[in-house]
Design brief:
mainly alpha; 0% strand; binds fe (ii) ion
């Protein structure tokens, strides 16, 4: 379904707003803003390394995320340019984790190279097939990533690990901004077609999983043992419920849409392009 002129215009404005804040308040420099000189004071452990590795692995699928995102977003200026900016910001995430692993000595260059090869031997594919569904997915996935990184920032602060505290501060702030843009995009889609967008949102929630789930070996187990994961309750309370509230929808409204999704699924319906 082609986007209306009004939607394209509003998406452009939403991107302009996002980009202005990013350029004037949120830019960070990996070389100058991370206190690498404090690396010596942080205590390394296999558990901490495993945590950083799993975050790094998830960020390493950037080429696949970008390829899928560009394909879906290219027809609208605002979403396409957001995708380009998003890719730049996300590229720093994988890079800073990679640098942390080697500069800290927790992993050698050879180990990181082998790890990277293992991770990228699998290809991430779009979990949903339309721009609108991926905006719903982005709103939830970025919120969940923000929560996970914020929790890591707090752990690093309590352990006196200045380097990781700075890294997770910048990354969590980026992820929160990404969640904000996707939420704004979903709001615009809701204004355009409330029923269809709610149907997509319900469908995405029912089928939600993080990008690394199913790609990174033993993903759930690794999240649990390394302490990198967030609990389903945290996801519900700090990602899903606040997102729905900000989108100005209710559980009842969503439940109605969910029921429609279930009925539709029984009839073999695949949600329409949004
Ligand atoms: Fe990221
Ligand atoms: Fe993000």
């Amino acid at each position: 379904m082609a986007a209306s002129l009004a939607l394209r215009e509003k998406m452009y404005r939403a991107y302009l707003e996002f980009f202005e804040v990013a350029e004037s308040k949120r830019r960070w420099n990996m070389f100058n803003d991370v206190p690498w000189e404090a690396l010596g004071s942080s205590i390394g452990s296999e558990r901490k390394t495993a945590r950083i590795e799993i975050f790094c692995a998830e960020e390493l699928y950037l080429p696949d995320y970008s390829a899928g995102g560009v394909e879906l977003s290219r027809s609208i200026f605002g979403t396409a340019w957001f995708q380009a900016c998003w890719s730049y910001e996300e590229s720093k995430h994988g890079l800073v984790f990679r640098e942390y692993l080697t500069r800290s000595g927790l992993r050698s260059e050879a180990e990181v190279a082998a790890f990277e090869e293992r991770v990228l031997s699998k290809v991430w594919r779009l979990p949903f097939q339309t721009r609108r569904q991926m905006a719903c997915y982005g709103a939830l996935q970025e919120a969940a990533t923000y929560i996970a990184y914020k929790a890591q920032k707090d752990i690093a602060a309590s352990e006196g690990d200045k380097v990781l505290e700075a890294i997770f501060f910048y990354l969590s702030r980026d992820e929160a901004a990404h969640a904000g843009f996707y939420r704004a995009a979903v709001e615009l889609e809701l204004a355009e077609d409330r029923g269809g967008t709610l149907l997509d949102l319900a469908y995405v929630i029912a089928n939600f999983k993080m990008p690394g789930d199913g790609l990174i070996p033993d993903y759930q187990e690794r999240l649990r043992t390394s302490g990198a994961g967030i609990s389903p309750r945290m996801f519900m309370e700090h990602a899903l419920v606040p997102t729905l509230r900000k989108l100005n929808t209710s559980r009842a409204e969503l439940k109605g849409a969910m029921a429609q999704v279930n009925v539709a699924a029984e009839r073999g319906y695949v949600p329409a392009a949004g």
